C-alpha cells in the first residue's frame, strides 16, 4: 500500500507544475495590462510613466518565463505576492476566506453521506416500494432545480415567513443550515440513486446468490458483501463531488452572503487581481488532486485488486 501511495504522490507533481504554468500563462494572455489594473485598483491615474514604473516594480517587463520562475521560486517560500485590491499578502488573505468555504463544504459533504447512504440502501432493499418512489421523486426535483432558486425558496419560507433561520452571513450554527441544505440537496439524492443502482447490480452477482444459499442472514449479505462492493462507484462520485461542492459554493455564498473563497475569487476575477487569481487556482488544484489521491487510497483498500494491478503494471 505504501508503494501505491508514493506512486500516486509522485504523479501529482507534474500536475501541479503544469496547472500553475497554464494558469500563469492564461492570466497574462488575457487582454489588459496588469500594471494598469494595479493602478486602477490603487486609484492612481494610469499615465504612461506610472504604468512603466509599476511594470518595473512588479517585474512585468521581464520575459514571461522569467516571471513564471520568479513567481515559482517565491511560491516555494509561501510568498504569493500581495493583492492588488487590499495590499495584503495573498496567502494569508486567501486562507482567511478559504476557512468558511471549507466549513460549509465539509458540513454539506457529511450531511450528504449521512442521508444518502441509508436512503440508498433502503431504496435498493425495498425496490419499487413507497420509500423508493419518494426518494426517486426527490432525486428528480434535486436534478431539475437550480441551487440559487432553491436557496431563495429556503430563505423565503424559513427566514421571511417562519423566521426560523437567519437569511445569510456567517456566525452561529443556525447560519449553516440553509446554505448546507442548498449545497447538498442535489448531491444527496443523486448519490442515493447511484448507490441504489450499484447495489441492485451487485445483488444479481453469483457470489451474492451463493452467500444467500449458505444461509447467511440478509443484513450480513447486504452489509458485508453487497454494500462493500457497491460503495466503489459511490466513493468515486463522493470524491469528485468535493471539487464540485467547492465550485458550487460560489452561487451559494452569493445567495446567503457567506464570506467564503467563492465570492472572493469572483471578486478577484472582476478586479483582475492577478496574484489572487493565480494562487486561488493553484490552491483549488491542490485540493482537487489530494482529494482524488484519497479516493484512490480508499478504492485500493476496499478492492485490493486495484492496488495489485497498480503495483504490477510495469512487471
From TrEMBL:
SUPFAM superfamilies: MetI-like (SSF161098)
Topology within the bilayer: Multi-pass membrane protein
A GO molecular function held by the record: nickel cation transmembrane transporter activity
Annotated transmembrane regions: 12-30, 106-125, 137-160, 172-195, 229-256, 276-302
Subcellular location: Cell membrane
Keyword Transmembrane: yes
Swiss-Prot/TrEMBL keywords: Cell membrane, Ion transport, Membrane, Nickel, Nickel transport, Transmembrane, Transmembrane helix, Transport
Main subcellular localisation: membrane
Keyword Transport: yes
Domain (ABC transmembrane type-1): residue spans on this chain: 98-295
GO cellular component: plasma membrane
Subunit structure, as described in the record: The complex is composed of two ATP-binding proteins (NikD and NikE), two transmembrane proteins (NikB and NikC) and a solute-binding protein (NikA).
Family: Belongs to the binding-protein-dependent transport system permease family. OppBC subfamily.
Matches recorded under NCBIfam families: Opp2B
Name of protein: Nickel import system permease protein NikB
Protein source organism: Halalkalibacter okhensis
Amino acid at each position: 500500500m505504501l508503494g501505491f501511495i508514493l506512486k500516486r504522490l509522485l504523479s501529482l507533481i507534474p500536475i501541479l507544475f503544469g496547472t500553475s504554468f497554464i494558469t500563469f500563462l492564461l492570466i497574462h494572455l488575457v487582454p489588459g495590462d496588469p500594471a494598469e489594473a494595479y493602478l486602477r485598483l490603487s486609484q492612481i491615474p494610469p499615465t504612461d510613466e506610472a504604468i512603466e514604473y509599476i511594470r518595473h516594480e512588479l517585474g512585468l517587463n521581464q520575459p514571461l518565463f522569467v516571471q513564471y520562475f520568479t513567481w515559482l521560486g517565491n511560491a516555494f517560500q509561501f510568498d504569493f505576492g500581495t493583492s492588488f485590491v487590499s495590499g495584503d499578502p495573498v496567502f494569508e488573505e486567501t486562507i482567511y476566506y478559504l476557512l468558511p468555504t471549507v466549513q460549509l463544504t465539509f458540513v454539506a459533504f457529511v450531511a450528504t453521506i449521512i442521508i444518502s447512504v441509508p436512503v440508498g440502501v433502503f431504496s435498493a432493499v425495498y425496490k419499487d416500494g413507497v420509500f423508493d418512489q419518494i426518494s426517486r421523486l426527490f432525486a428528480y426535483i434535486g436534478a431539475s432545480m437550480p441551487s440559487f432558486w432553491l436557496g431563495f425558496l429556503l430563505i423565503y419560507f424559513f427566514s421571511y415567513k417562519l423566521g426560523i433561520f437567519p437569511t445569510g452571513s456567517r456566525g452561529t450554527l443556525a447560519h449553516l443550515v440553509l446554505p448546507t441544505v442548498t449545497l447538498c440537496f442535489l448531491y444527496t439524492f443523486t448519490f442515493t440513486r447511484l448507490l441504489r443502482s450499484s447495489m441492485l447490480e451487485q445483488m444479481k452477482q453469483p457470489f451474492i446468490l451463493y452467500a444467500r444459499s449458505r444461509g447467511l442472514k440478509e443484513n450480513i449479505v447486504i452489509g458485508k458483501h453487497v454494500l462493500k462492493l457497491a460503495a466503489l462507484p459511490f466513493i468515486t462520485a463522493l470524491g469528485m463531488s468535493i471539487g464540485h461542492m467547492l465550485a458550487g459554493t460560489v452561487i451559494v455564498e452569493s445567495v446567503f452572503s457567506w464570506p467564503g473563497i467563492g465570492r472572493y475569487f469572483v471578486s478577484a476575477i472582476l478586479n483582475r487581481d492577478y496574484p489572487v487569481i493565480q494562487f486561488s487556482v493553484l490552491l483549488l488544484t491542490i485540493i482537487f488532486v489530494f482529494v482524488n489521491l484519497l479516493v484512490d487510497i480508499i478504492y485500493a483498500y476496499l478492492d485490493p485488486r486495484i492496488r495489485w494491478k497498480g503495483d504490477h503494471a510495469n512487471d
